[in-house]
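User: Please check token order:
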Amino acid sequence: MFSSLLRVISLSLCLSTVWAAAGQLQQVTNFGTNPTNVKMYVYRPAGLAANPALIVALHYCTGSAQAFFSGTQYANLADQYKNYMLIYPTAPDSGGCWDVHTNATLTHNAGGDSLGVVSMVKYAIANYGVDASRVFMTGTSSGAMMTNVLAGAYPDVFKAGSAFSGVPYACFAGAGLWNNECAQGQTTKTAQQWGDLVRSGYPGYTGPRPKMQIWHGTSDTTLNYHNFGEAVKQWTNVFGYSTTASQVQTNNPLNGWTRSTYGPNFQAISAQGVGHDLPVQATDVLTFFGLIGGGGGGTPTTTTAAPTTTTATPTSTAAPIEHYWQCGGLGYTGNTVCAAPYTCTVINVYYSQCL
């Protein structure tokens, strides 16, 4: 049954458009602790800026580094902007799915696929001059699940994540690689319970959490749309936001899609009538990460402000903000003064950055 399901996922997620990057993937071996033998491939565009940002791009079940490289726009956009490089890991499982269920992968420095991916990040920082304060992750389906896992288990490593058609952190936790109850939308928890699971990924951690962006199609029959609402409960609890969005934008970034913003660190995009094969919006992801400016779409939008009550603790204003850190944006309540010689630069309505 599981192998049949993998074929369904593969057929629905095989990306028909092949994006031609200027260069090729390069495999890296011996990059550090790697208990499950995850494979590491990198893409570094010609003319890459010094101290670039890094995006870890995580494939779907039955996928591979090469498939995600050629099936998404991240590499050719890196050729265009030259301000970030990419790591494309390949999952070691024979079905191509990521380990998002074991206690090892869900826990900081405990093992699993997640530790291998983090070792790749540390290798890139040490060997390619990657800016450690600008490390991001994104993925689709199983890769979206791993994006959530990394956000929970390694909040000290990643600045932001964007997950397409995934499930909440630890929703797949258990003995088996596949969790039917979660996949079918039968797992329901309170916001506090979901948030506690994220916090359990790195016990005792009190530092900043990665910004999160989640995407889901309302007609997803592989990972039921119910998971979208559960993930909203999870991340709003983690960030101390109300589960009522502070801003709702219809037809954004595409017609029939709705973007709900809950605060400066979390937004959720619902795609009406779209199944599991949710088209990756790479430009929007780069905008959310603060790597490029501009809006996320180009289609007409209708914006309505919704009442909200938040419990987030304001950021301390005792010291100027460091280079590349957030200094403004929708719902932001922290310090807006950047350390010299940097200035607070508007990237988009959601995010301003010290540049």
